[in-house]
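Chain A, query sequence.
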Amino acid sequence: MKKVAIIGAGIAGIASAIRLAHKGYAVEVFEANEYAGGKLSSFEQNGYRFDAGPSLFTLPHLVEELFQLVGKKASDFFEYERLSTICHYFWEDGTRLNAYAEPPKFAQEVEKVLGISAAKVEEFLKDSAFKYEVLDGLFLQDSLHKLSTWTSKKALRGYLNLPKLGIFGTMNHANEKYFQHPKLVQLFNRYATYNGSDPYQTPATLNIIPHLEYNVGAFFPKKGMVDITNVLVDLAKSIGVKFHFQHRVKEILTQNQQIKGIRVVSQEREEQELFFDKVVSNMDVTHTYRKLLPQLPHPDKLLNQPKSSSGVIFYWGVKKAFPELGLHNILFSDDYREEFRVMFEDKKIFKDPTVYINISSKHKPDDAPEGCENWFVLINAPANEGQDWDKLIQDLRQQVIDKVSRVLSCNLASLIETEAILDPRSIELKTSSAQGALYGNSSNNKYAAFLRHANFSKTIKELYFVGGSVHPGGGIPLALSSAKIMAKEL
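Chain A, predicted structure.
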C-alpha cells in the first residue's frame, strides 16, 4: 500500500486525508498544533466558548459528500440548520436592514428600507446564480493548470458567456451601475471580503458569492463551526487515517526532483525522517516552499504576489443580551472606499472600520452564560508587513467599542467581562499563513484566479497542495474543493 503524508490538519488537509484513504492509500497527517482544524478551531474562556475562525457555513453538500464517499450518512454524525436571516446590517445614520434568507423576502426588505425595486434585487440574485453556474464547473471543480480544463465543454460555455461574467470590470463598478444606491452597493461590495479582496479593485466575477447565501443558503452547525472539523476528523480516523498532533514538519525530503518523505520534529523535540510515496501540503504554499523546501528553486513570481487581507479579532464575553443582533451582524463604515484604500495602500486600519460581529450563542445558548453573549468581533486588516500592531490594536479596540456603543446605544466597555485577541502576527504563528493573510494571495486584479498555485507541483513529482493559499481559493467551500481537485490529480 502506498503511503501519503499530509502536512497540516486544516479543513483541506482533513478532507484530503479522507479522499486519499478512500482511494486506498495509507494516510498520515502531521499537525504542529495540539488540535485539528487550523483556523476552523475553537476555545473556551471564563465560561464562554468561541469558534476561533470561519463563522459562515455555506455549501454543506461539500461536507456531506465526504461521508457519502465512504458509504456513511452525514446526518447520522453532523447536524446543521438553515438560517432564516443571513445578516443584520447597521449604518451610523440609524438605517437597519435585515437580510432575510429567502430572496423575495430579502428583496421586499430592501425595497421597504432603501427604496430599491424588489424586482431589481431578485434579478441581481438570479444573475449571481447564472455566473456561479457557469464558473463553478470551470474554476471550482477542476485544475486551471491542465489543458483538458480549457478544452472542455464547460470551458466552451464559459467562453461564450465571457462578457456576462464580470471579468473585465470591478465589483464596485458593476454594483454602482446596477443599483445606484450607496448603501445597497456597500452591502453587495462587502462580499469581496469573503476572499480578502478590495471591491474597488477585484473583478465583478466575485458577484457570484451572494448566490451561495441567498439562493443556496447560509447555515449553522448545531454544535458550532468547530463541529465541521470534529466530525471530519472522526470520519478520517474511522477509515484508517492516522493523525500526529504536535508534530511539526521541518522539511520535505526529495531526491532527483521526486518526493522521498518528510523530516518531522515531535513535541519532545525528537527529529526523524519518515519515508512516503507522496506528500500533500495543507500548509500555506509560500511557507511550504521557503521553509520546507529551502534548497530547491521557488516560483518566486507567484509567491511574491500581494497578499489578501488579514484580520484583527476580538473575542468578547459580553454580559448582556442584544435582541436586535443575530448570528451575523455588520456595522458599516461611512466611507467604505477609504477604508479599503487605507488597508491595501497604506497597510493600516481605517479610523472608522466596518465591524463584523458573530454571536453563536444566538443559536447555541450554552456558548455563553445565561443572559450573556459570546461576541466574535472581526475587523478587516492588512497582512503583516511589520506594522506596529500593538499600537494599531490599542487604537482599534477603542474605535470599535465607540462605534458599537453609538450604533447600539450602549456602554459596551462596561459589558466586556472576558477578552482574547487574534491579529495577523498570531494568525501566522498559529496557522502558518504567510504574513497572516487569511486567503493567500489577493484577488485584486482580473488575473488573480490564474495566479494561484496549482494543486500539484510541476517540478517535484508526487508533491501536491491544498488549502486556501492555492487553487481555487480561501474559505471553507474552496478549501474543501481544493482537496477534491487534488485527489483527482493524484
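The longest helix spans residues 118-140. The mean pLDDT is 93.
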